[in-house]
Amino acid sequence: MKIDIISLFPDFIQAFYQHSIxxxxxxxxxxxxxxxxxxxxxxxxxxxxxxxIYGGGQGMLMKAAPLFTAVExxxxxxxxxxxxxxxxxxxxxxxxxxxxxxxxxxxxxVCGHYEGVDYRVETELVDEVISIGDYVLTGGEIPxxxxxxxxxxxxxxxxxxxxxxxxxxxxxxxxECPQYTKPSIFRQWAVPDVLCNGDHKKIASWRRQAxxxxxxxxxxxxxxxxxxxxxxxxxLSSEKEEIE
Length: 244
Known about the structure:
Elements: E1 2-6, H1 10-17, H2 20-28, E2 32-36, E3 50-51, E4 61-62, H3 64-74, E5 81-92, H4 95-101, E6 106-111, H5 119-125, E7 128-131, H6 141-152, H7 162-166, E8 185-186, E9 189-190, H8 200-218, H9 230-243
Parallel strand pairs: 1-2, 1-6, 5-6, 5-7
Antiparallel strand pairs: 3-4, 8-9
Helix pairs in contact: 3-5, 4-6, 8-9
């Protein structure tokens, strides 16, 4: 997969590309990540990428032309490509969206800055707008990195095993079960006995039940979309009654 980020702060993005799972995926050639500065596609003396707002208003908007040109330069002739603007007006980013985006051959993530971007970027250049939450950030760089990280994890070969991604919280609309490592007893807190007995069938059953219970307690809204057996739904109902 090819991922291009359009950003006024390429150094910020490039540092992200060099570390941890993302860095290893780039080094192994599983993914190809690049960042392009739209400022290089300005031709005035001061390399201005922003301007005042028509009709008045505070702040400055990023101009359409540098962003359009940057996208057109990095755009490849591939079968599946998605151009995304990172902005607060977009649809909330979810694990389901990450799985969907991982099926594309190229993603182009456009980062705004200043007061925002010329609206024609949203309506004429990109395929969709994505938001990572109902709060305001200085620019689109952090959201672009969030999307990149979540999407890259879904690509086969990036993690040690593909099961590592499918076991993550939200992949199946359930939170991940509690997990432990050595020592088996830390201070007065012990690892559940079932995880130490080597019976993989019992361990799998415990993990599933713990995942359901944790989701019901912390994020019950996720259960609406979870794939549950009738027995699991009955058990959750009894758990809910006990809590209430």
